[in-house]
Amino acid sequence: MRVANTVELKNKTNELLRYTMGGEPVIITLRGKPAAALTPLSEDGLEAFVLQYAQHKANRPGRAEEMLRYTSMTSGLGTIYVAYTDRGVNAVDLAASDEAFARSLSRKYRRPAVRDEHPPQALRQDLRRFFTSLDSFAGPVDLSMVGPFERVVLERLRRIPKGEVRTYRDIAREIGHPGAVRAVGNACAKNPVPLIVPCHRVVRTDGGLGGYSLRGGTALKRRLLEGEGIDLTALRAS
């Protein structure tokens, strides 16, 4: 690791960039205190940065805010909360109360949320059918609040049939980015609509379960996969 001040950053930019591209980070100091960092980016790191930047731009101050509406329903997993816009479902979570779910939405999206006392009938029917079978969601899904790479990953996950699994590496290959295994994992971890986009059906290459974005984590992921008839012992053995 190298330390450089802002004067060196201005006068020796190319030298510092060559140092960084060689694989070492450069810490930039201002008045003797660390103020920024130049770090090398792998393919996965670059995609993660683009995703983060796109999300920041989507939530930047001054952007017109669309009110998020939400509803809830009971299921075998507990009380499931679903938020939606006019474009479709855009958030799913298990929560203890309306207030807890609304706070979670506010932290994540920086948008106000309100319970919809009269959700659209078509939405209610789609959600009821889906949470009864946990097979495939027939209604529209709004992924406009995630980045472009993330959206490609999540759209691909929607096509994984119930009772089947894919690895993070499989998904990376299927979307044409075989080196982006870690970025695929990050997209799954940030999935705003788990269950509806079944990221629980994506596992590690070594047969390990990996993480899960829905409240309940890996234990819930295991329960969901076993409920779909997946032999986890055979999965690890393979």
DSSP E strands, number: 9
| Shape summary | globular
Profile the largest sheet: 4 strands, mixed
How would you classify the helix and strand content by structural class?
alpha/beta
- N- and C-termini, Cα separation: 41 Å
User: Which strand-content bin applies to the residues?
Assistant: 15-25%
Q: How would you explain this protein's 3D organization?
A:
Helices cover 42% and strands 19% of the residues. With 238 residues, the protein is an alpha/beta fold. The chain folds into three domains: 1-40, YefM-like fold (3-Layer(aba) Sandwich), CATH 3.40.1620.10; 68-133, Double Stranded RNA Binding Domain; 148-237, Winged helix-like DNA-binding domain superfamily/Winged helix DNA-binding domain (Arc Repressor Mutant, subunit A, Orthogonal Bundle). Strands 6-5-4-7 form a four-stranded mixed sheet, with helices on both faces. A three-stranded mixed sheet has the order 1-2-3. Strands 8-9 form a two-stranded parallel sheet. Strand 2 (26-30) and strand 3 form a beta hairpin. Helix 6 (148-157) crosses helix 8 (181-189) and helix 7 crosses helix 8 (181-189). 25% of the residues are buried.
What is the fold's blueprint, element by element?
Elements: E1 2-5, H1 6-11, H2 13-21, E2 26-30, E3 33-38, H3 43-58, E4 68-75, E5 78-85, E6 88-94, H4 98-109, E7 113-115, H5 121-133, H6 148-157, E8 166-167, H7 168-174, H8 181-189, E9 202-203, H9 217-227, H10 232-237
Features:
four-stranded mixed β-sheet; 10 helices; YefM-like fold; about 240 residues; Double Stranded RNA Binding Domain; alpha/beta
